[in-house]
């Protein structure tokens, strides 16, 4: 599972009245419903609850009929109840960051699912304002071939996407593109594996060591060792690495989880460095220079918020490394979805246009304001108590914005100042789920919390923090 990591209030909502309408039972809900975090199933003695008038938590049940078949719908995301049988209903519920509702005999429980993995739903409000600017049509005769450009080293990379990737980096000024090859992948996770494959010497007697400075991105160890490759193996904290021979170091800058700007640590002769720059965009951090590294990884999920498109790209200086990365993707998935690439190209183009046209709603300025507001609220809550602390970020001059600004990272790296050994466990007991510092190779007194959830979920998280502080005081 990949951070308002989860937060929830616990309460119940009861039926207030029932009436007959066209042979169906019509049910009105009381307005004091809040959230139950853990309840997922219906219990026995389910009565014939058929219709919901109210709109609670943006979720509503549309008519569960008495013929043992029904639908359970979130108005926007839509997940369904399957198999209404006698007194029990089994739910097919995906990982949704929206609030959902579960029906019971004498109580209606509102179940809260808040993102646990940095799901970037914060960006949704901007794209709603954009309306149909990103809408386009793909005819049935388009994109049938495996190939996008047979003359390109990355032969499955759509030319439109390559053009818009390079254009956006030129507009923002965060990475050099002129002397780099573009390799597209199914998210940056596939590109991490492709880079490991491409950078590991094939003829070594033992696997190449893979390291990153703590606190490192929590998925690096799992992604590295998942396939149990004989080419490479996770070797832990870069600061503690003293082994001779080849190695690969991941440098995540800004860092996930703590938002700090990082540089390579090991700096030995046989090493290769991969710069993971997923968060090196103006909404998260000042753009202080144009990155010009050998291998640089980016992802649409953290740049634009479109995590579901599963598009990432690498800027690779060395042609042989780019060819090997392309080969890895060819073998594992025979390329990358053309529909996802074309959609991403359209979205990146809209973002570039918004930055270049004075009367447009600048995407990065809009998102930077949202992030600044959220960090201001979180700092205010944390500042009311001595229980938690947050990192501080000194203002730096942003070349993109043309002014000094502070970093507003995608994640809050919170520390517990109380005599508590396991901060994650402490928060879990208070109905707040966060990711432990252990997952990042760090102290369990730290946790990572996502700043990218929807506004209503972020407000619940802040409310929960205040509740915890009140309890602790």
Provide an overview of this structure.
This protein is an alpha+beta fold and 473 residues long. Helices cover 26% and strands 22% of the residues. It has helices at 124-129, 159-172, 187-199, 219-225, 300-303, 319-333, 338-356, 363-383, 423-429, 455-472; strands at residues 6-7, 15-21, 24-29, 51-52, 59-60, 73-74, 80-85, 88-92, 99-103, 108-112, 181-185, 208-212, 232-237, 247-252, 271-276, 295-299, 312-316, 388-389, 396-398, 403-405, 411-416, 432-433, 435-436, 446-450. The strands form 8 sheets. Strands 11-17-16-15-14-12-13 form a 7-stranded mixed β-sheet. α8 (363-383) packs parallel to α10. It is globular, with a radius of gyration of 24 Å. The two termini are 32 Å apart.
**Largest sheet, strands/sense/barrel:** 7 strands, mixed
Structural class: alpha+beta
The shape is globular
Fraction of residues in helix: 25-40%
Q: What is the number of helices? A: 10
Mean pLDDT: 79
Number of DSSP-assigned strands: 24
Task: Give, in spatial order, the strands making up the sheet with the most strands.
Answer: 11-17-16-15-14-12-13
- Rg: 24 Å
Query: What is the strand content?
Result: 15-25%
- Which consecutive residue ranges, at least 5 long each, have pLDDT under 50? 1-116
Euclidean distance between termini CA atoms: 32 Å
Describe the secondary structure blueprint for this structure.
Elements: E1 6-7, E2 15-21, E3 24-29, E4 51-52, E5 59-60, E6 73-74, E7 80-85, E8 88-92, E9 99-103, E10 108-112, H1 124-129, H2 159-172, E11 181-185, H3 187-199, E12 208-212, H4 219-225, E13 232-237, E14 247-252, E15 271-276, E16 295-299, H5 300-303, E17 312-316, H6 319-333, H7 338-356, H8 363-383, E18 388-389, E19 396-398, E20 403-405, E21 411-416, H9 423-429, E22 432-433, E23 435-436, E24 446-450, H10 455-472
Parallel strand pairs: 3-4, 12-13, 12-14, 14-15, 15-16
Antiparallel strand pairs: 1-22, 2-3, 5-6, 7-8, 9-10, 11-17, 16-17, 18-21, 19-20, 21-24, 23-24
Helix pairs in contact: 2-7, 3-6, 8-10
